[in-house]
């Protein structure tokens, strides 16, 4: 226990130090007016705690509907502990950060037809405040409760938000947040007068980590058939995977998480890949976390966002990572099933095809045996070829409220790799156009 405590403190100190020494002569960095959120600030979790969610909100720019009817998307980054500011400033927001810490317009902005709310979740993540590490939730129920409070507070900020159709989008481990919060809202709604309900319409999960133990089972064969490892290496990884199963069975959840990470590390070592999140990358592509961190630690930027200058931004929180270490391997497949069974919530699963951690193969492993009356029809539904501007973009499979999209040319953070196709996907799915019309 002492050792663990030491390690956590150690990591924190290192990170704080690194952030504090970021280049302050960059303080004149351009923060284009268009890249400023419509509003941003804090949403407190209760009257008795100083813990609060940080958010940025970008209103729809070109909605064809009145704003009061324009869909509202909520973006939740994964991790656990990754800031949604990555999604905002690098993936789906209106402007994208570059290596020189300047901005360029995002051709795939999600706030063209929809308002997009980015929440640093759970508390302790990004600019969100945890009054103490103990207040950070250690399970999905705690996270859903907090998110529900944050969301309802946000909706009260302006009458124009109140009754808009809401879609929760969870990236990677954020898929769990989206599933469990969706369920929490359903349960609350059932007990509330219609005027007080949260108008949840859909849940989207991008390269989701929903049933990690099942997903981990696919790694050896998946890598083998991609030609990344040989048969002997495949057998070795299969043994490691059995250890994950064993640890999960005896509910040693944190150890199971560590065993999964070890398996991934081994696969990365065996294959020599720069990252398993995109098996076509020979160099590590993920420097945007550093760019976002540099940018958000500039005093003027904090001021513009309504953040106290004393707050240090970290793109990934080790406190949150530690709090939820034991949650990662726990399945929330039943939560997705509940959403489908409700017959009121639409579910979108989408995956960048190049991701070996939570890509199409890993997703199919838990989706295809879901307990839901429509699953057989879904599995046997036609897989439609999807083109954007005449070019092959991926594949869409749909039955009733369940839609699955495989996006070619994208890795784990697909929306950043294929911005235009990601934008087309989310717009067509939300607005039920093209291949996404309900059957
Ligand atoms: C800080 O940024 C400036 C301007 O980009 C650069 O010239 C300088 O070398 C940087 N200093 C450090 C310590 O990185
Ligand atoms: C909204 O439309 C204007 C005019 O066509 C365009 O310049 C702008 O980029 C659009 N905004 C978004 C977020 O797509
Ligand atoms: C991967 O290789 C590095 C360098 O040889 C080593 O330090 C590390 O322990 C290896 N990781 C795993 C999970 O085998
Ligand atoms: C910023 O935070 C510091 C330290 O927590 C506090 O003393 C100060 O009052 C805060 N400033 C504002 C403007 O809230």
Please, could you describe this protein's structure?
The chain has 439 residues and is α/β, with parallel strands linked by helices. The chain has a single domain, classed as Alpha/Beta hydrolase fold, catalytic domain (Rossmann fold). The protein is 39% helix and 16% strand. The protein has a ten-stranded mixed β-sheet, sandwiched between helices. It has a two-stranded antiparallel sheet with strand order 4-5. A hairpin with a 5-residue loop joins strand 4 and strand 5 (103-105). Helix 4 (174-190) crosses helix 12 (333-341) and helix 6 (219-225) runs antiparallel to helix 7 (231-249). It binds 2-acetamido-2-deoxy-beta-D-glucopyranose (4 copies).
Hetero groups in this structure are: 2-acetamido-2-deoxy-beta-D-glucopyranose
Main sheet record = 10 strands, mixed
How much helical structure, as a percent, in the residues? 25-40%
Low-confidence spans: 1-28
CATH T-level topology: Rossmann fold
Number of domains: 1
What is the overall number of helices?
Answer: 16
Globally, the shape reads: globular
Strand order of the largest sheet: 1-2-6-3-7-8-9-12-11-10
What is Rg? 21 Å
For CATH, the homologous superfamily is named as Alpha/Beta hydrolase fold, catalytic domain
């Amino acid at each position: 226990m002492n050792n663990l405590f030491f390690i956590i403190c150690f990591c924190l100190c290192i990170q704080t130090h690194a952030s504090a020494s970021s280049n302050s002569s960059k303080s004149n960095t351009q923060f284009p007016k268009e890249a400023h959120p419509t509003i941003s600030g804090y949403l407190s979790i209760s009257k008795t705690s100083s813990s609060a969610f940080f958010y940025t909100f970008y209103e729809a720019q070109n909605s064809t509907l009145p704003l009061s009817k324009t869909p509202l998307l909520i973006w939740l980054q994964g991790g656990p502990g990754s800031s949604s500011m990555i999604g905002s400033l690098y993936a789906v927001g209106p402007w994208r950060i570059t290596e020189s810490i300047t901005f360029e317009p995002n051709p795939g902005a999600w706030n063209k037809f929809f308002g997009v709310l980015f929440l640093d979740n759970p508390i302790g993540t990004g600019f969100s405040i945890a009054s103490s590490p103990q207040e950070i939730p250690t399970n999905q129920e705690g996270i859903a409760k907090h998110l529900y409070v944050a969301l309802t507070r946000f909706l009260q900020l302006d009458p124009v938000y109140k009754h808009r159709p809401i879609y929760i989008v969870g990236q990677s481990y954020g898929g769990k947040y989206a599933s469990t919060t969706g369920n929490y809202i359903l349960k609350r709604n059932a007990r509330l007068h219609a005027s007080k309900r949260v108008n949840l319409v859909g849940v989207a999960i991008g390269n989701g980590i929903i049933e990690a133990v099942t997903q981990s089972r696919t790694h050896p064969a998946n890598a083998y058939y991609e030609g990344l490892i040989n048969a002997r290496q495949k057998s070795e990884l299969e043994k490691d995977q059995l250890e994950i199963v064993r640890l999960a069975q005896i509910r040693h959840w944190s150890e199971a998480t560590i065993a999964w990470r070890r398996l991934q590390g081994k696969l990365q070592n065996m294959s020599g890949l720069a990252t398993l999140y995109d098996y076509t990358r020979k160099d590590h592509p993920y420097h945007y976390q550093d760019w976002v961190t540099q940018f958000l630690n500039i005093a003027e930027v904090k001021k513009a966002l309504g953040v106290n200058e004393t707050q240090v931004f970290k793109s990934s929180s080790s406190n949150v990572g530690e709090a939820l270490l034991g949650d990662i391997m726990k399945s929330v497949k039943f939560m997705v099933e509940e959403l489908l069974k409700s017959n009121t919530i639409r579910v979108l699963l989408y995956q960048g095809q190049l991701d070996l951690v939570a890509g199409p193969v890993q997703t199919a492993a838990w989706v295809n045996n879901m307990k839901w009356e429509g699953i057989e029809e879904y599995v046997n539904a036609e897989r439609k070829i999807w083109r954007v501007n005449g070019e092959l973009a991926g594949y869409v499979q749909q039955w009733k409220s369940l839609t699955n999209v495989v996006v070619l040319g994208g890795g784990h953070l697909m929306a950043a790799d294929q911005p235009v196709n990601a934008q087309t996907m989310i717009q067509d799915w939300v607005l039920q156009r093209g291949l996404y019309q309900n059957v």
